[in-house]
Each structure stands twice: as C-alpha cells, then as structure tokens.
Write a structure and sequence with these properties.
Largest sheet: 5 strands, antiparallel
Helix content: 40-55%
Number of strands: 7
Shape: globular
Order of helices and strands: HHHHHEEHHHHEEEEEHHH
Number of domains: 2
Number of helices: 12
Strand content: 5-15%
Radius of gyration: 20 Å
Length: about 325
C-alpha cells in the first residue's frame, strides 16, 4: 500500500484503530513523525480515566502536532477523522443555525459535535486566504464609518502593537489580522467582530490570544499557541469580570466553559466564512427583499449542503 491508500482507508473507517496503526508502522519504517502522532492520538483517546497519563499524552500530542507537515495534519484533524485533540477542552463547534440545512439549538450561537461538521477542502489551506473574496475599500470604509478617523487610526496602531508584541503568533494569524481587506471580508449572522488580540501566557508558557467576540460579549474565540509552536482555536464563555464597566475591552479570564473548535487558524476562518455564505444563501429571499447581497451557489457551498442533506436522509 502507498501513502494515499492508507489515508483513504482511514477516511472510510475513521473509527477503526487497525488502519491507523498499520499506517503508523508504515510511516515509522520511513522515519516519518506522523507515526508518533497517530499512536499518541489513539493513546490519548483511550486514556480519559487516567489524569496523569492524559496530561503526559496531551503534552506529547502538542509536540507531535508541531513536528508533522501542516497539510498532512489538516487531513487528520478533519471532522470524523480527529480522534483526540491536545487541548484541555472537548472538541465541538460553536456556530449559528444554517436555515433549513442545520437547525439552531439556541437563541444565538449553538454547540454542535465536532464530528458532525462537513469536511473542509484542506488542499486550499496555503496560508494565503486565496479562497476569500477580499473586502473592497468602499466596504471597509462603510464598516468603519461609525467611528471617527482618529479612533480608527488608534485602533489600527493598537492592533499592530498587540501582534508585534507576540513573535510566537503564527504567520497565518499575522497575515490575516493585519489585512483589513481580509478581516472585513468575514462576517457572521450572530454579529461576530475581530478585536485587537488580548493575550496572556499560562503557567506552561502557552499563549491565549482573544481575537474574536460576538455582539453580546457572551462568547470569545482565542488563538492558543503551545510552547512547541503548534496552535489551535478555542471558543470560551468569559467570566463576568472579564469586561470593564463600559464593555469595551477584554481582560484575561479563566473560562468557565470552553471548546476546541478548530485545529488551525485558517481552518477556523474558512469555516466561519463558508457558514456565513451558506446562512445568507439559505435566507436569500428575505435578504433580497432587504436589498442585500445573496451569494451564488458555489461548489464549496454545495458540498456543505450535501453533507447536511445526507445527515438528514433516513437510513436505508
């Protein structure tokens, strides 16, 4: 068997340990770090009752994440394929309903099992965001319009300073957060907005940087960077004391509830962008009546729809 044959078999039987272990042996014979990743992930998925062992395996999995090729890792951290994540938090997605395609479970943002999500086109993840339609200068100006020019300039300087302060931020995070044409190209039905990264360092040397908030300040999204260099995205509910009296800034807080929502920054941005496009497509009639843009049905949107149609279809 060749590399692609093992991957295809694992994708068809993600619950089966045997193909993963066979692939790990094959990779080890070729001195690939992917062998350690596969074995550590399986061990972590089976160690829920042993706290000490779990902590050791999490630390090892973080180091395995940092050692493998990102494009290879993207395949094995896809929904259904991922068996365990190295964070302290359960794997899940925090998002809104998608009209007739995915039911809303709460008033705003709901929790969906990570393995229920559609797979993403990982071959598109090149760190360039070439799949995103950049916002025009006019759209950026319209989005900024409520704030005075002086406040806009100060906010921009603060963002640059916050990002430059942390040299361990991934390049893909820096590229996106410093490009207005990218950040203003992503919106969401629940009113998410990108903020200047508020970062803190945990006792182990990992960095948590809040970069996205919802309009109700009820949920935050953090970039987490492990000391080994690997990163993921965490969504969390903040403590009440996380905000000042004006609600204009976010201070570091220990989350009461948190979720591992994406294995990389680009995977996270792709999913929220695509889900926003699907939400607008699903609500096309009402948006047209309000004179708002409705996206066309792209191949990417169709694949997302097909996934949920298949989930909704009755079993034979």
């Amino acid at each position: 068997m060749e590399n692609g044959d093992f991957i295809e078999l694992i994708q068809k039987r993600p619950w089966d340990d045997v193909p993963r272990l066979a692939y790990a042996d094959w990779l080890q014979s070729r001195h690939s770090p992917g062998a350690d990743y596969l074995r550590t992930e399986l061990a972590l998925s089976q160690s829920a009752t042993n706290v000490s062992e779990t902590a050791t395996l999490r630390e090892q999995l973080w180091r395995d994440w940092a050692s493998v090729d990102p494009s290879w890792l993207a395949i094995f951290t896809q929904p259904r394929i991922l068996r365990a994540n190295p964070s302290l938090f359960p794997s899940a997605w925090r998002g809104s309903g998608l009209g007739q395609y995915r039911a809303r479970r709460s008033a705003l943002i709901s929790t969906y099992p990570y393995d229920s999500l559609p797979p993403l086109p990982v071959e598109e993840f090149r760190g360039q965001f070439q799949w995103l339609n950049p916002a025009t200068a006019e759209e950026i100006d319209m989005a900024r319009a409520p704030a005075p020019k002086e406040a806009q300039d100060q906010f921009r300087r603060q963002r640059v300073a916050a990002i430059e302060k942390q040299p361990r931020f991934p390049d893909v995070f820096r590229r996106f957060m410093l490009a207005d044409e990218l950040t203003f190209a992503v919106d969401y039905p629940s009113g998410l907005s990108f903020c200047n990264p508020h970062s803190r360092v945990d006792d182990a040397g990992g960095i948590y940087a809040t970069f996205l908030i919802d309009s109700q300040y009820s949920l935050l999204w953090d970039l987490y960077v492990h000391p080994a260099g690997a990163h993921c995205i965490i969504a969390r509910r903040p403590e009440p004391e996380a905000f000042d009296t004006g609600g204009s800034s976010i201070e570091p807080a220990t989350p009461t509830t948190a979720w591992f929502v994406a294995p990389s920054f680009e995977a996270f941005i792709y999913r929220i962008w695509l889900e926003n496009e699907l939400w607008k497509y699903a609500h096309g009639e009402s948006l047209r009546q309000a004179d708002r843009h409705v996206p066309s049905l792209t191949r990417s949107l169709q694949r997302y729809i097909d996934h949920y149609d298949q989930q909704a279809a009755p079993s034979p």
